[in-house]
From TrEMBL:
Record-listed E.C. numbers: 2.8.3.5
Record-linked InterPro entries: 3-oxoacid_CoA-transf_B, CoA_trans_fam_I, CoA_transf_AS, NagB/RpiA_transferase-like
UniProt xrefs under PANTHER family: KETOACID-COENZYME A TRANSFERASE, SUCCINYL-COA:3-KETOACID COENZYME A TRANSFERASE SUBUNIT B-RELATED
Gene3D superfamilies, per the entry: Glutaconate Coenzyme A-transferase (3.40.1080.10)
Keywords annotated in UniProt: Transferase
SMART domains noted in UniProt: CoA_trans
Transmembrane region(s): none
Organism: Mucilaginibacter phyllosphaerae
UniProt similarity note: Belongs to the 3-oxoacid CoA-transferase subunit B family.
Entry-linked PROSITE patterns: COA_TRANSF_2
Molecular functions (GO terms): succinyl-CoA:3-oxo-acid CoA-transferase activity
Taxonomy, superkingdom: Bacteria
Name of the protein: 3-oxoacid CoA-transferase subunit B
Length: 218
Protein backbone atom coordinates (compact mmCIF):
# COMPACT_ATOMS: atom_id res chain seq x y z
CA UNK A 1 0.00 0.00 0.00
CA UNK A 2 1.32 3.44 -0.92
CA UNK A 3 1.49 6.54 1.22
CA UNK A 4 0.93 10.02 -0.26
CA UNK A 5 4.58 10.29 -1.29
CA UNK A 6 4.35 6.94 -3.04
CA UNK A 7 1.29 8.05 -5.01
CA UNK A 8 3.14 11.20 -6.06
CA UNK A 9 6.21 9.20 -7.12
CA UNK A 10 4.12 6.90 -9.31
CA UNK A 11 2.29 9.79 -10.97
CA UNK A 12 5.60 11.53 -11.72
CA UNK A 13 6.37 8.63 -14.09
CA UNK A 14 3.45 9.74 -16.28
CA UNK A 15 4.96 13.17 -16.99
CA UNK A 16 6.61 13.44 -20.39
CA UNK A 17 9.39 15.68 -21.62
CA UNK A 18 8.11 19.08 -22.82
CA UNK A 19 4.80 18.93 -20.95
CA UNK A 20 3.08 21.93 -19.41
CA UNK A 21 1.63 20.54 -16.18
CA UNK A 22 -0.85 21.92 -13.66
CA UNK A 23 -0.64 20.47 -10.15
CA UNK A 24 -3.73 20.59 -7.95
CA UNK A 25 -3.91 20.96 -4.18
CA UNK A 26 -2.97 18.10 -1.85
CA UNK A 27 -1.13 14.99 -3.10
CA UNK A 28 -0.59 16.48 -6.59
CA UNK A 29 1.66 19.21 -5.18
CA UNK A 30 4.11 16.49 -4.07
CA UNK A 31 4.60 15.32 -7.66
CA UNK A 32 6.96 18.24 -8.35
CA UNK A 33 9.54 16.68 -6.03
CA UNK A 34 9.72 13.42 -8.02
CA UNK A 35 9.92 14.51 -11.65
CA UNK A 36 13.09 12.89 -13.08
CA UNK A 37 15.98 15.28 -13.72
CA UNK A 38 16.14 14.27 -17.38
CA UNK A 39 12.49 15.23 -17.96
CA UNK A 40 12.09 18.91 -18.89
CA UNK A 41 8.63 20.16 -17.89
CA UNK A 42 7.07 23.50 -17.00
CA UNK A 43 4.76 23.55 -13.99
CA UNK A 44 1.84 25.97 -14.11
CA UNK A 45 -0.14 27.41 -11.22
CA UNK A 46 -3.52 28.86 -12.17
CA UNK A 47 -3.10 31.92 -9.97
CA UNK A 48 -0.54 33.12 -12.54
CA UNK A 49 2.82 31.36 -12.69
CA UNK A 50 4.77 29.37 -15.26
CA UNK A 51 7.97 27.79 -14.01
CA UNK A 52 7.06 26.60 -10.51
CA UNK A 53 9.88 24.89 -8.66
CA UNK A 54 10.09 22.56 -5.67
CA UNK A 55 8.62 23.32 -2.29
CA UNK A 56 10.95 25.58 -0.27
CA UNK A 57 12.86 24.23 2.70
CA UNK A 58 11.73 25.36 6.13
CA UNK A 59 12.98 28.88 6.78
CA UNK A 60 13.37 29.67 3.07
CA UNK A 61 9.67 30.35 2.37
CA UNK A 62 8.66 33.58 0.62
CA UNK A 63 5.09 34.51 1.66
CA UNK A 64 4.68 36.49 -1.57
CA UNK A 65 5.29 33.41 -3.73
CA UNK A 66 2.38 30.99 -3.42
CA UNK A 67 0.43 28.53 -5.53
CA UNK A 68 -3.33 28.44 -6.02
CA UNK A 69 -3.71 26.60 -2.72
CA UNK A 70 -1.85 29.39 -0.88
CA UNK A 71 1.14 27.14 -0.20
CA UNK A 72 4.55 28.76 -0.43
CA UNK A 73 6.50 27.64 -3.49
CA UNK A 74 9.70 28.44 -5.37
CA UNK A 75 10.21 29.81 -8.88
CA UNK A 76 12.73 28.51 -11.38
CA UNK A 77 15.08 30.81 -13.30
CA UNK A 78 13.17 32.21 -16.27
CA UNK A 79 9.76 31.73 -14.65
CA UNK A 80 6.93 34.07 -15.62
CA UNK A 81 4.38 35.70 -13.35
CA UNK A 82 1.11 37.12 -14.70
CA UNK A 83 -2.50 37.78 -13.72
CA UNK A 84 -5.12 35.05 -13.35
CA UNK A 85 -7.00 36.23 -16.44
CA UNK A 86 -4.00 35.37 -18.64
CA UNK A 87 -3.50 32.14 -16.73
CA UNK A 88 -7.06 30.98 -17.36
CA UNK A 89 -6.77 32.08 -20.96
CA UNK A 90 -3.88 29.63 -21.22
CA UNK A 91 -5.92 26.88 -19.56
CA UNK A 92 -9.04 27.45 -21.67
CA UNK A 93 -6.95 27.55 -24.85
CA UNK A 94 -5.81 23.99 -24.00
CA UNK A 95 -2.15 24.94 -23.57
CA UNK A 96 -1.86 22.69 -20.50
CA UNK A 97 -0.89 19.14 -21.49
CA UNK A 98 -1.58 17.44 -18.18
CA UNK A 99 -3.59 18.28 -15.08
CA UNK A 100 -3.09 16.32 -11.87
CA UNK A 101 -5.92 16.70 -9.37
CA UNK A 102 -7.18 15.27 -6.12
CA UNK A 103 -10.73 13.95 -5.90
CA UNK A 104 -13.37 12.91 -3.41
CA UNK A 105 -15.09 10.65 -5.94
CA UNK A 106 -14.57 9.43 -9.50
CA UNK A 107 -17.19 7.53 -11.50
CA UNK A 108 -16.55 4.63 -13.86
CA UNK A 109 -17.23 6.89 -16.86
CA UNK A 110 -14.64 9.46 -15.80
CA UNK A 111 -16.79 11.99 -13.94
CA UNK A 112 -14.99 13.75 -11.07
CA UNK A 113 -16.27 15.33 -7.86
CA UNK A 114 -13.57 17.23 -6.00
CA UNK A 115 -14.84 20.57 -4.80
CA UNK A 116 -17.85 20.37 -2.47
CA UNK A 117 -19.49 18.22 0.18
CA UNK A 118 -23.12 19.38 0.62
CA UNK A 119 -23.64 21.09 3.97
CA UNK A 120 -19.97 21.99 4.44
CA UNK A 121 -18.71 25.52 3.85
CA UNK A 122 -16.33 25.98 0.93
CA UNK A 123 -14.67 29.06 -0.53
CA UNK A 124 -15.66 28.11 -4.07
CA UNK A 125 -14.71 25.81 -6.92
CA UNK A 126 -11.58 27.75 -7.82
CA UNK A 127 -10.02 26.73 -11.12
CA UNK A 128 -11.00 23.07 -10.99
CA UNK A 129 -13.88 23.24 -13.47
CA UNK A 130 -11.80 25.13 -16.06
CA UNK A 131 -8.97 22.65 -15.68
CA UNK A 132 -11.05 19.50 -16.10
CA UNK A 133 -12.92 21.03 -19.04
CA UNK A 134 -9.78 22.11 -20.88
CA UNK A 135 -6.84 19.81 -20.11
CA UNK A 136 -5.79 17.26 -22.72
CA UNK A 137 -5.11 14.66 -20.05
CA UNK A 138 -6.27 14.38 -16.43
CA UNK A 139 -4.75 12.13 -13.78
CA UNK A 140 -6.40 11.87 -10.36
CA UNK A 141 -4.39 11.29 -7.18
CA UNK A 142 -6.70 10.06 -4.44
CA UNK A 143 -7.37 7.58 -1.67
CA UNK A 144 -9.20 4.48 -2.90
CA UNK A 145 -11.58 4.46 0.07
CA UNK A 146 -12.84 7.07 2.52
CA UNK A 147 -12.34 7.09 6.29
CA UNK A 148 -15.29 4.76 6.72
CA UNK A 149 -13.70 2.26 4.33
CA UNK A 150 -16.21 2.99 1.56
CA UNK A 151 -15.08 3.07 -2.06
CA UNK A 152 -14.49 6.42 -3.77
CA UNK A 153 -14.39 4.77 -7.21
CA UNK A 154 -18.09 4.50 -7.98
CA UNK A 155 -20.62 3.62 -10.69
CA UNK A 156 -21.84 7.23 -10.37
CA UNK A 157 -20.61 10.14 -8.25
CA UNK A 158 -22.87 11.11 -5.35
CA UNK A 159 -21.26 14.51 -4.72
CA UNK A 160 -21.63 17.65 -6.89
CA UNK A 161 -19.65 17.17 -10.09
CA UNK A 162 -16.64 19.20 -11.15
CA UNK A 163 -16.46 17.68 -14.64
CA UNK A 164 -17.89 14.85 -16.73
CA UNK A 165 -16.17 12.15 -18.80
CA UNK A 166 -12.78 13.75 -18.27
CA UNK A 167 -10.58 11.59 -16.00
CA UNK A 168 -8.14 9.37 -17.90
CA UNK A 169 -6.08 7.73 -15.13
CA UNK A 170 -6.28 7.28 -11.36
CA UNK A 171 -3.48 6.50 -8.91
CA UNK A 172 -4.47 5.47 -5.39
CA UNK A 173 -2.77 3.86 -2.40
CA UNK A 174 -3.85 0.49 -3.85
CA UNK A 175 -3.58 0.69 -7.62
CA UNK A 176 -3.15 2.42 -10.96
CA UNK A 177 -6.32 2.39 -13.05
CA UNK A 178 -7.25 3.66 -16.51
CA UNK A 179 -10.76 4.98 -17.10
CA UNK A 180 -11.87 3.42 -20.36
CA UNK A 181 -13.78 5.42 -23.03
CA UNK A 182 -16.64 2.90 -22.90
CA UNK A 183 -16.72 3.07 -19.09
CA UNK A 184 -15.09 1.10 -16.32
CA UNK A 185 -11.84 1.12 -14.34
CA UNK A 186 -9.15 -1.02 -15.99
CA UNK A 187 -6.67 -2.27 -13.43
CA UNK A 188 -3.18 -1.48 -14.74
CA UNK A 189 -0.93 -2.03 -11.71
CA UNK A 190 -1.33 -2.95 -8.07
CA UNK A 191 0.61 -1.32 -5.23
CA UNK A 192 3.40 -3.33 -3.58
CA UNK A 193 1.93 -5.97 -1.28
CA UNK A 194 -1.65 -5.38 -2.45
CA UNK A 195 -3.66 -8.23 -3.99
CA UNK A 196 -6.16 -8.03 -6.83
CA UNK A 197 -8.85 -9.25 -4.41
CA UNK A 198 -8.21 -6.33 -2.08
CA UNK A 199 -8.62 -3.91 -4.99
CA UNK A 200 -11.85 -5.62 -6.05
CA UNK A 201 -13.30 -5.22 -2.57
CA UNK A 202 -12.33 -1.53 -2.48
CA UNK A 203 -13.81 -0.66 -5.89
CA UNK A 204 -17.58 -0.11 -6.14
CA UNK A 205 -17.53 0.81 -9.85
CA UNK A 206 -16.99 -1.61 -12.71
CA UNK A 207 -13.47 -3.05 -12.44
CA UNK A 208 -11.91 -4.57 -15.54
CA UNK A 209 -9.01 -7.01 -15.16
CA UNK A 210 -7.15 -8.20 -18.24
CA UNK A 211 -4.88 -11.08 -17.33
CA UNK A 212 -2.04 -10.84 -14.84
CA UNK A 213 -1.79 -7.48 -13.07
CA UNK A 214 1.82 -6.42 -12.39
CA UNK A 215 3.02 -4.90 -9.14
CA UNK A 216 3.99 -1.26 -9.66
CA UNK A 217 7.60 -0.16 -9.44
CA UNK A 218 8.22 3.28 -7.90
Amino acid sequence: MLDKEGIAKRIAKEIKDGYYVNLGIGIPTLVANYIPDEVDVILQSENGLLGMGLFPFEGEEDPDTINAGKQTITRLPGSAVFDSALSFGMIRAKKVNLTILGAMEVSENGDIANWKIPGKMVKGMGGAMDLVASAENIIVAMQHVNKAGESKLLPNCTLPLTGVNCVKKIVTELAVLDVLPQGGFRLVERAPGVTVEEIKKATAGKLIIDGEVPEMVI
